[in-house]
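@channel anyone free to eyeball this complex?
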Amino acid sequence: MTELKTTPLNATHRELNAKMVDFGGWDMPVNYGSQIEEHHIVRTGCGLFDVSHMLPLDIRGENVRGFLRKLVANNVDKLQVSGKALYSCMLNEAGGVIDDLIIYFMDESWFRLVVNAGTAEKDLAWMEKMNAEWGMNLALTPRRDLAMVAIQGPDAKKVLDAAMPGADSLTETLKPFNAAALGEMFIARTGYTGEDGFEVMVLAKSAPFFWKALMEAGGKPIGLGARDTLRLEAGMNLYGQDMDETTSPLESGLAWTVDLKTARDFVGRKALEASEVTKQLVGLVLLDKGVLRSHQNVFTRHGEGEITSGTFSPTMQQSVALARIPLGIAPGEEVEVEIRDKKLKAKVVKYPFVRNGKVLI
Amino acid sequence: MSIPADLKYTKSHEWVKAEADGTVTVGITHHAQDLLGDMVFVENPAVGRKLAKGEECAVVESVKAASDVYAPIAGEVVAANDEVESSPEKINQDAYDAWMFRISPANPADVDALLDAAAYEAHVASEAH
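replying in thread with the prediction:
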């Protein structure tokens, strides 16, 4: 067995008696007690997540924008104000999703990307390959010297302001999906929960102190278990489950992130334009008793589909899922899901299921 | 959390209690619920169902995962606890109180062959490595 990778907050989690699990090769907290309680804390108060397994990646040099125009499916020309963030897929030539990532525009010679933990090495290799192929001569720097803490929930701003006196001068004006850099500290108003919140990067050695200050200010530690139920309620895709290299973003509920309006040529565009879209990602709510899980078969009047992510929603107190099913099935229709030896009834809905603490369906 | 000395256990983490009336009560252990986390769904076998030893007969699901529950011994289901089906979290609160179902054993001596508390504790320890 290979040794698990650890974040700068590993000892902190252990002090807090977290239940640690092997999370894609990382030793991470799945919960600190009850996953459901942690879920509710984020919907009603303020939760803290160690997301340092994700990789911040700085791209510097001349014409970073030109590189990203070709590299990713969303259009970085939407980023004109320093600090503005953009969510995008990075596609392969076949139009499959190599990863989904966030791009922060800082200045024309510096963009910061945040990529998934499990895909970080693959992403970096791909980007370096394109960098060489296109003769861009950019410097790609993985920032493993940084830790990342997500502060999420209706009280996130209050907690961050209290943990860092003076921070309010920044958090007052920081709009959603924007970031600001202060030396090595990087504060972004982003998240993966459907609540207000921040993702803050600090130097690795500062992370345990920063975490403690946030806890002193009322933030509660939240494990990756609740992170998954929160993001699913918020209708946010998870790489490796809802999409991967074999799936098109157009069949993964991510058409809104693929810019086909401008003439810009990007990797995967030709394949996407030549492809026929036959499936869609929809939300499901289970009407019978049970729990929807990934890979369960879905039966519709237009043929079969599959659940990509499923769980029990602590906010709605019933089971919900994202599923890839044939086109032509509309919200409100009933479908059947095969759970063990039974076919249970589920309703197709438009997701997100929950935003800002409120059930939307 | 201690492992009650008056119960018997299986390697698949069920606990078994021999009742005075000859039936046996089955639940899942504290260790099992701890591994699974917050319970959100329980499905018990139907009363009257005949079970073979080791047969998948019930399901417990946490937020995290689904897990089968196996018949510790052969017999017929004579009762099922509706309370854990309507409130699965009772298993997290007290796994040894939140029983799942009762079996009338095909062969009462089968219970004796199950693990005792010490053997189960050793089994849990061995799985931790």
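from a first look: Chain A has a mean pLDDT of 97.
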